[in-house]
């Protein structure tokens, strides 16, 4: 129990990063009703984009983040129009196989281009910390948490007050009614997927100076993302926030209080996923399917 203060701080900072990581996944399912298995690869590419901007040009990952988000949004929009839109009305198995296959392609292209060596952006604040008595707050995680909080707040404001955000919510609630109201549903699908991709890229840029960057990092992020979405309730943005912090607290508790916990903490997402599906398959904020 001596480390409880430090564990709480670490869990809160990690939970904010996880929340941003999963927001795009929750948005794409909530609006488009598609399970995006290449979401992890979008995070991976965002991490590499931030890494190479720093390694080649010395640009801070947080400064290049807006540009990476714009590129991610444009790429997501085009990718949706060219590959996902044609199978939108196909069985979910087809959509899963498509996005999973695209994710595998992106992973292997990254592996060919950049090898499997671990990399990390190292801006000046990477190893800096703030000390409050016995509690140490890593500056890199604090900046990552703060950036994630700003982006998440902006997304909630956009969803509630923005014209396109309200249109996305209308489609999520009732696509046919949204169509009758004059909303261009195909365009909004592609736009929402672009926003989802931009959020994934942003979380990757933040991860570039906190975690190791490899072509395979997307799979770990995807597993954690699905664990969070299922834990919070599929399609629930508020549930995704709660699930993010619950997973972060669970991982941190295992890392601190279980022998050799740092190794076991990576398996916590699988455990959370299994228990949630077993005990409450519709998640915290989800509702049971109508009989």
Structure description:
It is a single chain. Helix content is 73%, strand content 3%. Strands 1-2 form a two-stranded antiparallel sheet. It is an all-alpha fold. The protein has 12 helices and 2 strands; from the N terminus they run H-H-H-H-E-E-H-H-H-H-H-H-H-H. It has one domain. Strand 1 (129-132) and strand 2 form a beta hairpin. The mean pLDDT is 89. It has helices spanning 4-32, 39-57, 61-84, 92-114, 139-161, 163-173, 175-180, 185-207, 217-232, 237-257, 261-264, 268-279; strands spanning 129-132, 135-138.
What brief labels describe this structure?
single chain; 291 residues; mainly alpha; two-stranded antiparallel ribbon; 12 helices
Concise overview:
The chain is an all-alpha fold and 291 residues long. It contains 12 helices and 2 strands; from the N terminus they run ααααββαααααααα.
């Amino acid at each position: 129990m001596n480390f409880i203060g430090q564990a709480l701080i670490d869990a809160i900072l990690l939970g904010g990063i996880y929340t941003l990581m999963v927001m795009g996944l929750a948005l794409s399912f909530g609006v488009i009703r598609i399970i995006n298995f290449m979401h992890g690869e979008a995070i991976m590419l965002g991490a590499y984009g931030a890494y190479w901007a720093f390694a080649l040009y010395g640009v801070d990952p947080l400064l290049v983040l807006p540009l990476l988000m714009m590129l991610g949004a444009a790429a997501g929009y085009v990718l949706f129009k060219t590959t996902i839109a044609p199978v939108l009305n196909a069985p979910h198995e087809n959509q899963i196989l498509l996005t999973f296959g695209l994710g595998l392609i992106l992973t292997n292209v990254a592996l060919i281009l950049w090898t499997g060596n671990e990399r990390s952006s190292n801006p000046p604040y990477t190893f800096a910390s703030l000390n409050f008595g016995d509690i140490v707050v890593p500056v890199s995680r604090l900046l990552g948490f703060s950036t994630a909080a700003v982006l998440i707040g902006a997304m909630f404001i956009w969803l509630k007050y923005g014209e396109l955000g309200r249109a996305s919510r209308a489609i999520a609630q009732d696509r046919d009614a949204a169509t009758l109201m004059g909303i261009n549903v195909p365009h909004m699908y592609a736009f929402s997927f672009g926003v989802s991709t931009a959020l994934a890229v942003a979380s990757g840029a933040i991860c570039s100076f906190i975690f190791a960057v490899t072509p395979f990092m997307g799979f770990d992020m995807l597993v954690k993302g699905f664990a969070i979405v299922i834990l919070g309730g599929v399609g629930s943005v508020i549930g995704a926030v709660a699930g993010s912090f619950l997973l972060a607290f669970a991982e941190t508790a295992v890392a601190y209080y279980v022998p050799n916990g740092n190794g076991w903490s990576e398996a916590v997402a699988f455990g959370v996923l299994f228990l949630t599906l077993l005990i409450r398959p519709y998640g915290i904020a989800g509702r049971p399917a109508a009989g």
